[in-house]
């Protein structure tokens, strides 16, 4: 690993805004979060994968992976991050290095040619170039190649130095944020600045979730000036430094970026969620209060309250028919990050009982919120092997499992309905009306008549019905007597 990358990894692991780091003593903090990497540590996502997840939703950029084909091929387009404009982000570009090119040291030249080809053919707003294990190990230095290509072709070419072996997916998220901050933020100026300009970081617009919330912001006149989120454009990253407030939707992934925006440009940030009615209202309230503190007209707060009252009333009316169909149902939640608490509170609002929630990828703050919402820490669990999840579903007598696609077969095996709440889902669950979509999905899953059939034992497995008791013949009741037959 190059010295520069080693220093950057150490700095990212020692993130001062991270609650886990803040809770450590000086000695432990100095050590950072470095862990000895073990074989298989990248299973489930390497640093390169994490960087792609964080940045691929930037839609008008060509994402060029400098690697043999497999790095990109494995993770290609596995998220439902929606775009209202360019579809360029959904095309996979890779230098597709062959063994011969690696052995002959032709990687950097091939990368330069690939950048030229993608700019000539696609005219992207920018090219993001990702390094990977193979190209980093053979010593390809993407930084000077990107610099030379940008100067030659007049298009920004941004190096994202994230070889998978440096660590986990989460580390890759943060390294991607570092690259954006170093090479992109502050490179363009907005035509006009308003006191209603905000940044959004870490929402991926999965199935168009951000579009459930943006109309609310539009009604209040709030503009998403800067964005590292779904449906983002390159220019929105470049102009982030002019926003008044940053909303961080998933603090675990890109908190370093929000903290750097605060330290460098004085833009305060907060973490909020658009999952659930109360959390959506709380996020809007916080956003407006912070904007007013930073110079927006004070009537913004009254307008926000009026909007919240109207939207909450609408959403609660739409939820009412579902309430009797889901109230009292028991949910096992296996997701991560901010959803581990925001979905809990949303379900509890509807009278459902959350029997457990995972705290994978959750920060210390996330865990504190779960404990507050659920009243105890007893229902939190970390990663769960499929066998344990099966046992938990049975032991808790769960009525539904809400998780990502990888767990769906565990639910089916346990004959428990399943609802997808992770990145591959096809329905938007954010904002007020997102809750209605979520309840509709839960209702469809739980009250599907197939579950009653599925749980009924098959006819050949059912215990045999007890035989009808044999009534002894009452000969005395028969017509005639023994004497009647003796003469025959
Ligand atoms: S970057 Fe490395 S760990 Fe990640 S997919 Fe490529 S080879 Fe695998």
From TrEMBL:
Q: Which InterPro entries match?
A: Nase/OxRdtase_comp1, Nase_comp1_CS, NifE, NifE-like
Q: Does the keyword Transport apply?
A: no
Any single GO molecular-function term of the entry would be: nitrogenase activity
Is the Membrane keyword given for this protein? no
An example GO biological process term is:
protein-containing complex assembly
Please list the residue ranges annotated as the Nitrogenase/oxidoreductase component domain: 46-446
Which pathway, metabolic or otherwise, does it act in?
Cofactor biosynthesis; Fe-Mo cofactor biosynthesis
Q: Transmembrane residues, as ranges? A: none
Recite the UniProt keywords alphabetically.
Answer: Nitrogen fixation
The protein's matches in NCBIfam families, at most eight in alphabetical order, are given as: nifE
The family note in this entry says: Belongs to the NifD/NifK/NifE/NifN family.
Q: What does this protein do?
A: This protein may play a role in the biosynthesis of the prosthetic group of nitrogenase (FeMo cofactor).
Mind telling me what this protein is named?
Nitrogenase iron-molybdenum cofactor biosynthesis protein NifE
Q: What is the organism of origin for this protein?
A: Phaeovulum vinaykumarii
């Amino acid at each position: 690993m190059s010295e520069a990358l080693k220093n950057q990894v150490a700095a990212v692991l020692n993130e001062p805004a991270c609650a886990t780091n803040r809770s450590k003593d000086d000695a432990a903090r100095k050590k950072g979060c470095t862990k000895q990497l073990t074989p298989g540590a990248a299973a489930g996502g390497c640093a390169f994968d994490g960087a792609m997840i964080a940045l691929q939703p930037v839609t008008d950029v060509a994402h060029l992976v400098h690697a043999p084909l497999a790095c990109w091929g494995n993770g290609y387009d596995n998220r439902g991050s929606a775009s209202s404009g360019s579809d360029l982000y959904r095309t996979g570009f890779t230098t597709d290095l062959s063994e011969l090119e690696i052995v002959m040291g032709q990687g950097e030249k091939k990368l330069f040619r690939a950048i030229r080809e993608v700019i000539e053919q696609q005219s992207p707003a920018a090219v993001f170039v990702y390094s990977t294990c193979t190209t980093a190990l053979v010593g390809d230095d993407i930084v000077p190649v990107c610099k030379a290509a940008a100067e030659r072709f007049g298009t920004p070419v941004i190096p994202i130095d994230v070889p998978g072996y440096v660590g986990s997916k989460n580390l890759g998220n943060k390294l991607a944020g570092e690259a954006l901050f170093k090479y992109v933020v502050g490179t363009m100026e907005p035509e006009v600045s308003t006191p209603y300009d905000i940044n959004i970081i870490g929402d991926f617009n999965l199935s168009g979730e951000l579009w459930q919330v943006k109309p609310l912001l539009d009604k209040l006149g709030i503009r998403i000036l800067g964005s590292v989120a779904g449906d983002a454009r390159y220019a929105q990253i470049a102009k982030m430094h002019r926003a008044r407030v940053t909303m961080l939707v998933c603090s675990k992934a890109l908190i370093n970026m929000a903290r750097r925006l605060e330290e460098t440009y004085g833009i305060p940030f907060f973490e909020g969620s658009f999952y659930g009615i109360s959390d959506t209202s709380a996020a809007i309230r916080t956003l407006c209060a912070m904007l007013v503190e930073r110079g927006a007209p004070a009537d913004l707060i009254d307008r926000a309250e009026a909007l919240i009252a109207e939207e909450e009333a609408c959403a609660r009316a739409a939820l009412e028919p579902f309430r009797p169909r889901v109230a009292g149902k028991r949910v096992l939640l296996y997701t991560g990050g901010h959803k581990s608490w925001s979905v809990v509170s949303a379900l509890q609002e509807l009278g459902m009982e959350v029997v457990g929630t995972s705290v994978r990828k959750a920060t210390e703050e996330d865990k504190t919120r779960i404990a507050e919402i659920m009243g105890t820490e007893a229902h939190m669990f970390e990663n769960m092997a499929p066998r344990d999840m099966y046992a938990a579903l049975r032991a808790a007598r769960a009525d539904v499992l809400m998780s990502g696609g990888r767990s769906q077969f565990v639910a089916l095996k346990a004959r428990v309905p399943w609802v997808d709440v992770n990145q591959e889902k096809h329905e938007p669950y954010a904002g007020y009306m997102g809750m209605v979509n979520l309840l509709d999905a839960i209702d469809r899953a739980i009250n599907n008549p197939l579950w009653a059939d599925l749980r009924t034992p098959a006819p050949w497995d059912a215990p045999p019905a007890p035989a009808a008791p044999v009534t002894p013949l009452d000969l005395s009741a028969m017509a005639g007597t023994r004497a009647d037959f003796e003469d025959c």
